C-alpha cells in the first residue's frame, strides 16, 4: 500500500445466517420467533431470530432457558450442510469480484477495497455487492465501510439487520464514542464488569483513560483496548486463499495389509489434527485421505463436508473416504489425512444435536490435552495402532 493511502475495509455479515437459511427453505417461518439448536432438554441455542432475541434469547444459551424466555419460539435442530452450502455460495460471489478478502467465519467477511476508489466509489461497489449477494442467494446481509477492520465490524453490528453504513476517515473516534463498552470487541464479561465498577460505561470514557493506567490495569490487553477505543486498528485483511491446511501422514515401519491397524492409525491421526484444529479455533470444510501402496502408487480421495471441528464427525467422514479408497489386495506403505477449506470458528457451531454435556466433554478433553499432552487421552482404536507400532519396532 502506497504511503499516505487511506485503507478502505468493508465488513459483510449475513443477518441471523442460520435462521435466514431455514426461512429460505420454509417461507412459513418468516416473521416468527425461531431458535436453531439442540432440541433436547440439555440442548444449546446455536442461533436465534431477531424476533426471539427481543425476549433475551442468544446463542450458547441453554435451550431450557431460551424456551422459558420465549415460549412461542419454534425450535429447529439445524442443518449444517445447508449452512455450509450457502456460505460457499456467498464466498464464491465475493471471490469473483474482490481480489483480497478474508473469510472471518462461516457468515462474515472482510474486504480490502483500498485503491478501488480511484476507479469507482467504494461505497457504490459495496452496495452493489450486497444487492448481488441477496439477489443470487436470497440471504439478507449487512455491511459497513471504514478505514480498518475494527470500525467496520462494530459499525455492521450497529446497522443490522439488512443495513449499511460508511464511517469516513477521521470519523472513527466520533463513531465509537457514544457506544457502550460492551460493544467493543475484546471486552469480555469480566473485563466489562471491572470497567463498569470504575465508572467506565462508554467508549468515549475508555478512550480518555491514559494508556499507562490501562497497562497497569490489564497489561498488554489494556494497551490494545486503549488503541481500539481511539479507533486504531492496523490488523490486515488475511487473504482467504492463504488459509493453510492441517495435515499429517505416516510411513509405516513395514508395509501392511492389516485392516485393524490401518483403521486404528486413521483414528489416531484424525484425533491428532482435530485437536490441532480446535487449538487454532478453526473449522474444516474439506477432508482428504491419502494412501501410498507398497509399489509407490499414491491415491487420494477428498470430500467437501459441513464445517466442523468435532472428532466424531471428522472420524466418520475420514473412515468413509478410507473405505472407498482402500484396495485390499495391496500392501499399504503410507497413510495420510488433510483438512482444508479452513475458516475461523469453534466446535459450538456444529453442536445442533449435542447437549451441553457433550460440549463440556470436548472442552474438558482438550483442556487435559493442552496441559498434559495430546497422547494422554485418545480413543481405544487409536491406541491399538500405537501399541502395534511399538511392538514392530522392538
TrEMBL record:
Location(s) in or outside the cell: Cytoplasm
Q: Where is the active site?
A: 108
Q: Which domain of life is it from?
A: Bacteria
Q: Where is the UmuC domain?
A: 9-188
Annotated family: Belongs to the DNA polymerase type-Y family.
Family matches, as NCBIfam families: PRK02406.1
Q: HAMAP family attached here?
A: DNApol_IV
Its recorded name reads DNA polymerase IV
Taxonomic placement: Bacteria, Pseudomonadati, Bacteroidota, Chitinophagia, Chitinophagales
Amino acid at each position: 500500500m502506497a504511503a499516505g493511502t487511506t485503507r478502505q475495509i468493508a465488513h459483510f455479515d449475513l443477518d441471523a445466517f442460520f435462521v435466514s437459511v431455514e426461512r429460505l427453505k420454509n417461507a412459513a417461518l418468516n416473521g416468527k420467533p425461531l431458535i436453531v439448536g439442540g432440541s433436547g432438554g440439555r440442548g444449546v441455542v446455536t442461533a436465534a431470530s431477531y424476533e426471539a432475541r427481543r425476549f433475551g434469547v442468544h446463542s450458547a444459551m441453554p435451550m431450557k432457558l431460551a424456551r422459558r424466555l420465549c415460549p412461542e419460539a419454534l425450535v429447529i435442530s439445524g442443518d449444517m450442510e445447508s449452512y455450509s452450502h450457502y456460505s460457499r455460495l456467498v464466498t464464491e460471489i465475493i471471490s469473483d469480484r474482490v481480489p483480497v478478502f478474508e473469510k472471518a467465519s462461516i457468515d462474515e467477511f472482510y474486504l480490502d477495497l483500498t485503491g478501488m476508489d480511484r476507479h469507482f466509489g467504494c461505497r457504490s461497489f459495496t452496495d452493489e455487492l450486497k444487492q448481488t449477494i441477496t439477489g443470487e442467494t436470497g440471504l439478507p446481509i449487512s455491511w459497513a465501510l471504514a478505514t480498518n477492520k475494527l470500525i467496520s465490524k462494530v459499525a455492521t453490528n450497529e446497522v443490522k439487520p439488512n443495513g449499511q453504513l460508511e464511517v469516513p476517515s477521521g470519523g472513527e473516534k466520533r463513531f465509537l464514542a457514544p457506544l457502550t463498552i460492551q460493544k467493543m470487541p475484546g471486552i469480555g464479561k469480566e473485563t466489562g464488569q471491572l470497567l463498569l465498577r470504575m465508572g467506565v460505561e462508554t467508549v468515549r470514557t475508555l478512550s480518555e483513560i491514559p494508556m499507562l493506567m490501562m497497562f497497569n490495569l490489564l497489561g498488554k490487553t489494556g494497551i490494545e483496548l486503549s488503541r481500539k477505543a481511539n479507533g486504531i486498528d492496523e490488523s490486515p485483511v488475511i487473504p482467504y486463499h492463504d488459509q493453510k491446511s492441517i495435515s499429517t501422514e505416516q510411513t509405516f515401519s513395514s508395509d501392511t495389509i492389516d485392516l485393524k491397524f490401518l483403521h486404528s492409525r486413521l483414528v489416531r491421526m484424525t484425533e491428532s489434527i482435530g485437536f490441532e484444529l480446535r487449538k487454532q479455533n478453526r473449522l474444516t470444510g474439506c477432508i482428504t485421505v491419502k494412501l501410498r501402496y507398497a509399489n509407490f502408487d499414491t491415491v487420494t480421495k477428498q470430500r467437501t463436508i459441513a464445517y466442523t471441528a468435532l472428532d466424531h464427525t471428522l472420524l466418520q467422514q475420514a473412515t468413509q473416504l478410507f473405505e472407498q479408497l482402500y484396495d485390499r489386495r495391496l500392501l499399504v506403505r503410507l497413510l495420510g489425512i488433510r483438512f482444508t477449506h479452513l475458516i475461523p470458528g469453534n466446535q459450538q457451531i456444529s453442536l445442533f444435536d449435542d447437549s451441553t454435556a457433550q460440549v463440556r466433554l470436548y472442552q474438558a478433553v482438550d483442556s487435559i490435552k493442552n496441559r498434559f499432552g495430546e497422547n494422554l487421552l485418545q480413543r481405544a482404536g487409536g491406541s491399538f495402532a500405537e501399541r502395534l507400532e511399538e511392538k514392530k519396532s522392538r
